[in-house]
Each structure stands twice: as structure tokens, then as C-alpha cells.
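Quick start: what a row looks like.
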Amino acid sequence: MNQELYITAISAPITTEIAADGWQNFYELHKLVYKGFPDKQTATKARVLYRFDIDGDHGYICVQSKTPPDWSKLPPFVKVSGPVPLQLPPCNPGDKLRFRLLAKPSWKTPRKHPQHKNRRFALSEEPEQRDWLNRKGDQHGFKIEQVSLTDRVWFDTKVKEYKSDGSPKELHAVQFDGILTVTDKEALLQAVANGVGPQKSYGFGLLSLAPIP
């Protein structure tokens, strides 16, 4: 991977609307992140990837892109660190690294399926989700050594389908945290740059790597 990547950390107190939206409404989070780019086409070319986390009393958005964003349109109470060039740990074959990936494990029907052409279905059982991650590792140059899975929940505020109590429909994703072994350096670096899995423009697929202390 020859092209430089840029990383930004955006933080806001969890009591603010931005943090609440980031934790529960990925459409609003998408709009917030894309304020760093003049238009959708520019953001698409920049291959924007991001993930929302909560640590202590702050919500954090980690944003990665191939060109530096401009965060001047964000509210003044939001703290921005970056963009700065992404510093990756050594990723040579055999190296062991810590990783985090927020993803939507799923499978897709073939284009000629008689009933559900090109439709994507979520994998909701943990063994299926682990198998999905292992397959992604085979595809993207890493082997999972150990991993924990955390269910993350958002609310779909754009659809008209609501539950019987009037609340929005829940949408689930999986946060994978663990240790991987590098098997193919270039494939892994491409996965870092381009993301892993579907719905990358809505906060999924950012693969973060760090050395093991």
C-alpha cells in the first residue's frame, strides 16, 4: 500500500446530541462525518471509513481517509485531533497484532436467485459471525488467534416500520476485538485502506491495528 492514509479522532461528551446520535443513529453519524468533505463524490474517492466508540464520559469517532478532511463545519464543542498520517505497526508475515473491527457479518444471495436476487441477509448467531470473520481473514491476509464479540445496536430512523411499542427498528452489528497473525502483508494493508465487509459508508468495516504491549 503506497498511498498515505489520514486519521482523525473526533470526541464529544456523551451528554451531547452528537454522541447520542453516534451511538444510536448511524444515519446522523454518517452526515456528521461527511461534513469533512465538500460533497459525496469527494468522500467516496477519499475512501472514508469510520467507527464510533464510547470510552468513559466521551464518544469518539475514528475517521480514516485517503485525503485529509476539513472539519471546520463541525460544532465548536466537538474536539478534533487530526487529521494526521496513519502510523501502522509493522505488518510482516508472522507478526501478531491487536485489532478492532466493527462490522455487519452477512451473506448475499446470487444474482439469479429466484426469490431474493442480490439480497443481503445478516448472520445473527455467534458461530456464523466467527466463521465470517475467519473467511475475511483468509481473504485479507490475516489469521484470527483470539477474538471477543460484542453486539452493537443502532436504530433505523429512516424506515416507516416501527415495533409495536412505537420505537424504531433495531439494527445490529458486531464489534470484534482480538489478536490476529499477519499472513499476507499487502492483502492486510489493502483491507486497512479499503475496509472489511458491507456498509462501509455507514460506519462499518474500519480495521484498526495496534502492536501488542
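That is the whole record. Residues 1 and 186 are 7 Å apart (CA to CA). The chain has two domains: 6-85, 96-211.
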